[in-house]
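Hi all, posting the design record for the shared folder.

TITLE: backbone redesign
STEP: 1 of 1
STRUCTURE INPUT:
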């Protein structure tokens, strides 16, 4: 008989251990092995795994499925606000996947399958190892957005997306939006209903809200007076914790660089580097030397041109940016620590620079590897410079 001693949480981050512990009272039978059939939520068999019992047969065998289940999630759900117009709430997009495991035994050459089972969800998270022992998905599902920071600063024109997990037992009814002026007086309030309330559709287990201020202004239609006087706004799931979004009010001396990056909880945080950016590029060339047609001089008298003897058969250019922040608060300093080890980041860029229209997301590699977190009470005024590479390589003609 199989006994499941422990399981992962119902919603567990796919890039942390997804651990089961099992025991069986048949461990002493000839050729005994534990058998685990792992299925995707669609019922596809992903693998059949077999494990020997521990040396002390009464001890539990420990099974970690993280490497397999992490392949079920993706990071392709970041959106520019206008791409979901006229909606404000979007669903899923690979952030969450469901799975199931059937546990059995093999002994005397015979497999006895599906003696115990478990089903759950993995989401696109990778919780810091020091936080992991205390992580509890119920702190976030239906109640809190997937970010460690409940306050951020944006410009009115910026795009912004907030993500959250939604339980399969009760759905979020809606989201409360409130706008405040500089005196802290509430000038506008409304509730956005949640259109994705199915308890069985796995795509509804993750919700993404596109909540840039200009986008909300266009969608909700509040007055221009409210818009012009707005100093900050809050967004909260019904009955949950509010996210405060401060509106950048200082004069913009430079266009700056806006980065959006995957955080450890599976949401996308954002930050504006408000000082001047410095663009550069690095070029790599590979060459071969070829023999001239005119071996005596290398000169083509008919075209009045010296021959090209160094053949550039490979030319690759990487474009780079140095982004410089304004003076940081303590919370911003912590937020940027999460950014620097993020595996995925985008720059919001104006497509007119490349011949297009509107705002686009450019994937960037963050090249800065060392970071000292500072505090205002000790370091007074401090900022941060980050080295970025646009991760779209450029190749030139072969000559």
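Okay, here is what came back for every position:
SEQUENCE:
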């Amino acid at each position: 008989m199989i006994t499941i001693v422990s399981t992962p949480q119902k919603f567990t981050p796919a890039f942390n251990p997804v651990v089961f512990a099992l025991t069986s009272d048949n461990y002493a039978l000839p050729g005994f092995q534990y058998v685990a059939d792992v299925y995707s939520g669609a019922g596809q068999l992903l693998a059949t795994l077999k494990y020997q019992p521990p040396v002390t047969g009464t001890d539990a065998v420990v099974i970690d499925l993280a490497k397999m289940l992490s392949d079920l999630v993706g990071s392709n759900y970041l959106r520019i606000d206008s791409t979901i117009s006229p909606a404000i709430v979007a669903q899923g997009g690979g952030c969450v996947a469901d799975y199931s495991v059937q546990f059995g035994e093999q002994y005397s050459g015979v497999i006895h399958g599906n003696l115990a089972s478990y089903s759950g969800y993995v989401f696109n998270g990778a919780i810091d190892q020091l936080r992991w022992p205390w992580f509890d998905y119920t702190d976030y599902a239906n109640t809190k957005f997937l970010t460690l920071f409940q306050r951020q600063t944006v410009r009115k024109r910026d795009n912004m997306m907030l993500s959250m997990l939604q339980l399969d037992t009760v759905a979020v009814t809606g989201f409360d939006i409130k706008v405040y002026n500089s005196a802290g007086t509430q000038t506008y309030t409304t509730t956005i209903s949640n259109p994705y309330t199915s308890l069985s559709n796995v795509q509804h287990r993750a919700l993404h809200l596109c909540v840039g201020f200009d986008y909300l202004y266009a969608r909700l239609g509040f007055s221009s007076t409210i818009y012009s006087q707005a100093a900050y706004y809050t967004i909260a799931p019904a009955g949950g914790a509010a996210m405060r979004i401060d509106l950048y009010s200082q004069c913009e001396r430079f266009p700056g660089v806006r980065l959006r990056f995957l955080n450890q909880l599976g949401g996308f945080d954002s930050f504006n580097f408000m000082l001047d950016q410095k663009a550069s590029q690095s070029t790599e060339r590979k060459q071969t030397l070829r023999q001239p047609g005119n071996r005596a001089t290398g000169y083509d008298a008919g075209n009045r041109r010296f021959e090209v003897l160094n053949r550039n058969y490979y030319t690759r250019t990487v474009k780079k940016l140095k982004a410089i922040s304004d003076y940081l608060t303590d919370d911003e300093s912590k937020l940027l620590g999460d950014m620097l080890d993020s595996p995925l980041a985008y720059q919001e860029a104006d497509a007119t620079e490349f011949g297009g229209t509107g705002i686009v997301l450019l994937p960037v590699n963050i090249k800065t590897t060392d970071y000292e977190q500072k505090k205002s009470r000790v370091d007074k005024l401090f900022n941060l410079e980050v080295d970025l590479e646009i991760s779209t390589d450029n190749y030139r003609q072969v000559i």
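COMMENT: The domain at 2-81+95-125 is CATH 2.60.40.10 (Immunoglobulin-like).
Let me know if anyone wants the other runs.
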